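look at this stuff:

>
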Amino acid sequence: MDKKYDFSAIESKWQRQWQQSGLYKVDETAGKQKFYLLEMFPYPSGKLHMGHVRNYSIGDVMSRYYTMQGKNVLHPMGFDSFGLPAENAAIKHGVHPDPWTRENIAAMRQQLQTLGISYDWEREQATCLPEYYRWTQWCFLQLYNKGLAYKKKSAVNWCPSCATVLANEQVIDGHCERCDSIVEKKYLEQWFFKITDYAQRLLDDLDKLPGWPDKVKVMQENWIGRSEGVQIEFVTESGDPVPVFTTRHDTIYGVTYMVLAPEHPLVMKLVAGTEFEQPVKAFIDKVAKLSTIDRTSSELEKEGMFIGAYAINPINGERVPIWITNYVLYEYGTGAVMGVPAHDQRDFEFAKKYGHKIIQVVAGKGWQGEEMTEAYEEKHDGYAVNSGEFSGLPTPEAMEKMADHMEARGIGRRIVNYRLRDWLISRQRYWGAPIPIVYCEKCGEVAVPAEQLPVLLPTDVEFKPTGESPLKTSPTFAETVCPVCGGKAIREMDTMDTFVCSSWYFMRYCDPHNTEQAFARDKVDYWMPVDQYIGGVEHAILHLMYARFFMKVFYDLGLTAADEPFTNLLTQGMVLKDGSKMSKTRGNIVSPEEIIARFGADTARLFILFAAPPERDLEWNDTAVEGCSRFLHRVWRLFVTISEWNGVNDALPSELNAADKAARLIVHGTVKKVGEDIGVRKNFNTALSAIMEMVNGLNEYIDGGNVKPAILGEAAEKLMLLLAPFAPHLAEELWHQFGHKDSVHQQSWPDYDEAALVKDTVEIVVQISGKIRGRLDIPAAAGHEQMEQLAKAHPQYAEWVGDKTVLKVICVPGKLVNIVVK
């Protein structure tokens, strides 16, 4: 063996050979247990960052481990390649997004290959390619035909200067990122997917996911936001119905005002031709400049105005003034809220500010009508007061009887409400999958037939910083032929949200080259669901929720046997530097390419896996990176030493001394621990720590003299196999240096000898009246009597006990002897 560890030559050599041999190519092998492992695919920005390295290194360890466990592992990669950055780059540099994106994909593919990740590159997908988005459009048609895709007016961010819709990411502190104009709200016709039809199933089926982190399931549960209550039918004095959903219908006698969202269509109808019309318009314009996040923030100063109209409280016939405020949104609930200041702190503060009456209708025991200083929000231990025939009832009973009363009178009904809203998929951008809909004067809205897909993005477009979608500059895209009547038709000009592309990509990997179907049923049923999914917790809501929604739709359509996409989920933490997330603006970026060039890919992988448990944030540490590099060099030197011994391939001798047994104990103990850390606990840092201790232990064994080469040979083979998932290039090179012909990554995971884990001696603690005084090595099988004798034979025993009387001796086999004295 060469005495120098030349990581650069070794890594490029094996990356080339793995690619040429198709080592990681898989198919649907019958009789072999499948394991589908997937990391969330990246946006092709052109540069890998350390967050990518961490994500993909975690996945690669698991992929290689389960392959060595004998499983048929599918481990694919692709690129989530539609989206705003490519379009912005096109506008900025005057180039089409397609070549810009393809160049970035090629660069990132090469970077991933230099990391030595075990991807089956023959399954690679890029969502911006027609052969992929053809099937994204087909997915749209499946939802459309099932009644789950529809169009309606919806509020969007509108820049009056650019005269265009802006994505949320393009709105900076309420201003357009391009021209700094104040952004307004505007209503446009938009496409939606009816995810709300699946709200209850999405909620219920979280129980099917024990392999997901609890925090992610709680986030999804809160996002779905199931609540049970009553929808109460208020009516304006002019006869317009105003339904209100509430979970506190027991407080209806305390309603002293009603709030409509400024966007509610009833608002302008109620103020039309009145003195309130212009002030209301001004208030609506002011609120339109606020983001949804601002309007729902607890820190927002609550503002409102009376619009000159009244509603009738259906329970008691009281007139209730109608207001509009900046904190009620039309998209939430019914867009109307009943104001009960006595029992909601937000309403209480609003009432104090604007002089609304405060009528307490729920109170605790012993209430004497005291003036309120804050809202009484107790729901379980209160009693109804000032509530007509329901006064005196405990709150739970009052809620039931009031709901019965409202349903009997037809003024309310029990319903289940969800915070979840339908998924708005329309984007007024170019670089996305075109929505396959045309509009015919004769036939109306018509879906493009599946056999006519894909609807291709036009290339005759201009990219100018005008704010207009480049699609509108194409002279060939808009006009088409109606697929029903053959007459003139106009194409839909919106493209799809990129989350649509990523909501089914894991299915396409199962059958990546199929030109007749998005995926064949037998192939998705072989591979799906994904056994282990890995990605950032920032995707807990949108991507993971949408992927679950798509999977349930596919299940209902008979396209798959699985109705959940991901059995197990690992959400890795961020990579930080100087306590902050790495970013160009902070100037704390660490380039993976520089680290690989300086230390090698195996070192980069080793540090990113060793520095912290996978689910925790990781602080970058240059010194620790150098430490990982030194460790791999130490491993190389250890194998150089072992290679110089004769007899390393001999059978183990029958007689072993204490040093031999200690060496085998650390080797077999490490095999056991590393297997459990990867396969059960997913604690790669502790697995690596155990491997490092094993290397130290073997060096100590060699330094101690009287070495048995067969023990070194056994240890070397197991160490190479243990290193394979973590440092694949080094492990492969060592494996071949030691005479093996096949790849180390095609070997079985090493087993361990239970007999080698049995210790001849154990270290115990000696205590005097509970205080630790010393330690002893004793026979592992020693009983109480022998443990007591050995403890009392300790050279310092007389000093510990002195002239005190021994009252009793407590022995815990294998752990301690406690001598109680007085």
